Amino acid sequence: MTPEDLAGVVRAAVAQLQAEGALTGDLPEEIVIERPRSKEHGDYATPVALTLAKSAGRPPREIAELLAGRLTATPGIEAAEVAGPGFVNLRLAADAQGQVARAIVDAGTAYGHGIGHAGQSINVEFISANPTGPIHLGHARWAAVGDAIARVLEADGASAVREFYINDRGVQMDRFGASVQAVADGRPVPEDGYHGAYIADLAAQIVAEHPEFLGLSEEEQHVAFREAAYLVQLKQQQQVLDLFRTHFDVWYSERSLHASGAVERGMQRLREQGHVFELDGAVWLRTTDFGDDKDRVLIKADGEMTYFASDTAYYVDKRERGFDVAIYLLGADHHGYVNRLRAVAACAGDDMDRNVEVLIGQLVKMMKNGEEVRLSKRAGTIITLEDLIDEVGVDAARYSLIRYPVDSPLTLDLDLLVKRTNDNPVFYVQYAHARIASVLRNATDLGIDWREASFDAGLLRHEREADLLLALAQFPAIVASAAELREPHRVPRYLESLATAYHRFYDVCRVLPRGDEELTDQHVARLWLCAATRQVIANGLSLCGVSAPDRM
RNA sequence: GCGCCCGUAGCUCAAUGGAUAGAGCAACCGGUUUCUACCCGGUCGGUUGGGGGUUCGAAUCCCUCCGGGCGCGCCA
Fold first, then answer.
1. Which of A25, A292, A347, A403 is geometrically suited to a Cys-Cys bond with A55, CB 3.0 to 4.6 A?
2. Is the interface score ipTM higher than 0.95?
């Protein structure tokens, strides 16, 4: 029995008490089932009597007594006791608990999936780095977390699209092109250009492929280098992100946004909604109607579109493409955009509390040998995602970027991330998976076919077995909350506690028969438990985009 | 000046308004004849930055002060 099953049981009990007139008031929307911190309080607890007390007009403990009496008589529940101010503490029967193992093995990769976001189409936009340089450490956090958010949303039933907005238009592109062109020409990079070491590499590559560029007129040459460098750089970004296992569904070009007429359509939409006005020769959007601290210019007095106009059109375009929710993942230096983007949604006639979400991620730093890493091998002054992958590998990098809530600054300790001991969480979790895989392999070698043998769930009554089963049963709720709160860090945190529960079990519960010992139902039951644990660890790691190795 | 985020054990960090605030590291002590010791157990460690409020209950929500980070263009 999972917590979700239990919530259903409690709900039914409350509904029945109300139907019988033993209890008045409303049926709560959600039945909260918690895992008590202390084991003395049972496997699960519900504070539902406390929340019911007000509308029922009776003391919480009295309601709890009624509920406990009803629940005690329910199959699968061994004990229901009233405690404290009105909690009902529940203890499950070993058999009901143990069936979780079978349910997990039967569900396979689908275990943990939910329907909380069923029917929702969600656009998750992240990184959106300018195609004028490598993906760097500042983007890396989102590369991992953004992808994990999409994975978790999908697991909870949503249709999620990972989208990368390519800023392939405007002044930065020109400066980038001019920088590459200058180096190719043997001139110094302009003051306002790009000075990273990678610019010279780009220039050399392009000259090698297109020696004819050098003979072009200044104007033609600029365009030629800009376009060639842009394509090479974009490709390089895409390759690094692929290597990092973050695969975008849509690479959306800003140029195509303009070329398609989306900007005009977006502008039209805003005008229809009545939030556009003119002042001092410029065209403005009255974002202050919806909580922004100042109105924003869409078209400057010189007739040029602002970047904000593109942003606005892009949002409208996303909605026109059918997304219910547009999630933006931005760095802390962009937090000023939060109110602006929300106001854009409202100005477009949308619900800014539902159709748009802006998540802000704080800075990432890297430490090595006790010092902050400031220089990149490749890019000179910026640390790249490629540097990070080189240092610790994709698994450790993704895992540690996902492991922390994004709203606090993060310092990655590179020395720690390459360690292969239990102070390095990713290895700790992966090791648990490899350990189980090894046990299952050995079972096969011994000719044990546990899947076909009879599974007696009631045999899993050792304290460590019960703890492990409780941990396994938690997984669907963890996935659901990670999706709902857009907090994928809950998954690795959970995996660490699950790995601990497994190692503790393994430490005292022998799984396979020793020597010429006979195979018993107990061995079989423990193999089911192992298989279930392996499955959940694999499913959880998959939500992080981290591999689940069978051997280490 | 205005705004956003953060402040939890010596360190890095958890905790969806729930019961005695938890892990790992560090420090110290212990555990394996056979399934992966990359593991497990124990000890030590806290006025959740300070103060006030909301309620059955606050690290969590509100106010205020202190400390830190970031942002406030007809730039992109």
1. A25
2. no
